[in-house]
Design a protein that fits this description.
5 strands, 10 helices, homodimer, globular, Rossmann fold, five-stranded parallel beta sheet, alpha/beta
Chain lengths: ~280, ~280
């Protein structure tokens, strides 16, 4: 789209230059341009895609940023450290509007339908569901750090460990409602639940308090990042931990996380659920 | 959202019933409802998310269908056989408007940046790039079947093998422009290109003709589905073929496909690029 816009601007400049070159030829130049110039694709934007922006948002940026967000969710982007500056308004609108909630709800409903089917399958083959397990990430999966990110540009600012730690230590991250519903359902179906988080072991107490206050009362294991795991990528650390869970005899049937590094690697779950998160990327 | 709407409808029915029960109490009922009824969340949709629809599209469906499409792209959905009926208008608008093109362009640009970096890495370590390979799917990746799907509800109709075969046999599928650009760049960088398609071997000649006519002039191997592969899932068939490519000494550094079954399984590429496709799902 940017290319088309550049093309359009280039064409207009060329026309303007030509017209200025000879004032006398102006009329014929103008008459000719509709015939001579290729029809710029940028003008073919269908009107139904136009959104009423808060203060007239740039439609081109809106389109580009929606593509950026889609590419992030489909794991198509190279590792990124912050939301592209021109996409900050788009990301803010997405997170504070109904779309983020809608996306979260739909993923939770899909996970719930799968959990019920998987539990029924286990029951049908007479397998003890004692070994069926579900892995949940914590941040932006069970708990939301949106109040923190609202104060830090919704991912536009570079991640600040010290500031974020202060927020974590408050223990005030709210539950993501659809995740809480899913979590309770998965527990009720008999799944063992493993909470596998990138938070450090030093934050265990505050994380436990935060989770319980928000309605996550029981789990089978809360796995936090030990000092030895600090330098590993999340993909490596979480894969190792999932392998340990499997080695203990559990079958990981479901895995919910907002990062692809929660879901990919080895010892992958039978099915994974990628919750939306356009604010940050963890490799 | 549907839940909220149901809640809203339920509340309104309850109110209507109560009001009808006694005509005399009507005024006081109406005065009381603003106090008594919980505030339905559906009313909190921020205005900036409202899109000017072609003939006033249902905003709730728009939100729901955008979530459905996002979930499809993030591989969160259970296998599906057709676009949900109420999402057909959303999918049609997406495909015929600028968003599909924008999404395709962005994925191609990401792939291109990665291809250049990967080629430079190979050159830096003195590795012969003769073994660097890129796998491309064909349908909805290099070639577009949009003209066919435009005549068949853009994924709303159940897939009809016979009708689709007729279309394939015409050999008139246009190139996806951003994929053609990427393809040429990847070739120029020295990657070997493997075209790995679910099309049957019987369609080899017409596929070759179609690809060449659309600008894909050279490749290292075009792999089509043999009779023996017919009953395999695409994930299994394509994984097997990628394994064979690796066994021949190639390193698959990139893989472009519009289906997750083009990308997942084993012998996975170092990096994968999921092109958008809300029209159909292949397991």
């Amino acid at each position: 789209m940017a290319r088309h816009l550049l093309l359009l601007v280039g064409l207009l400049l060329a026309v303007a230059g030509a017209a200025a070159a000879s004032e006398a030829e102006r009329a014929s130049e103008e008459a000719a341009q509709h015939v001579l110039l290729p029809r710029p694709l940028v003008l073919e934007l269908p009107t139904e895609e136009r959104c009423v922006g808060e203060g007239g948002a740039d439609e081109d940026a809106e389109l580009r940023c929606a593509s950026w967000r889609m590419a992030a969710e489909a794991n198509n982007l190279a590792p990124w450290t912050a939301v592209p500056e021109d996409c900050a308004p788009h990301v803010r609108r997405y997170l504070t509007g109904p779309a983020y909630r809608s996306d979260l709800d739909l993923v939770a409903r899909e996970a719930s339908a799968y959990a019920r089917a998987a539990a029924a399958d286990s029951a049908a083959v007479g397998a003890t569901s004692d070994s069926d397990a579900w892995v949940f990430d914590v941040d932006e999966t069970l708990l939301s750090n949106l109040p923190y990110y609202a104060e830090h540009g919704y991912g536009l600012e570079l991640f600040d460990h010290r500031e974020f730690d202060k927020w974590v230590e408050k223990g005030e991250a709210p539950a993501i409602p659809s995740s809480l519903t899913l979590y309770r359902e998965v527990r009720d179906l008999g799944f063992k639940t493993f909470l596998l988080t990138g938070r450090s072991e030093g934050h265990e107490a505050v994380t436990v308090d935060n989770l319980k206050r928000e309605g996550f009362h029981e789990w089978d294991k809360l796995i936090l990042r030990a000092t030895a795991d600090r330098k590993k990528t999340a993909t490596a650390y979480k894969s190792e931990k999932r392998k340990e869970i499997e080695a203990e005899g559990y079958k990981i049937l479901g895995n919910s996380g907002d990062q692809w590094s929660d879901l990919l690697g080895y010892s992958m779950s039978a099915r994974s659920f990628k919750l939306p998160n356009p604010m940050y990327y963890i490799p």
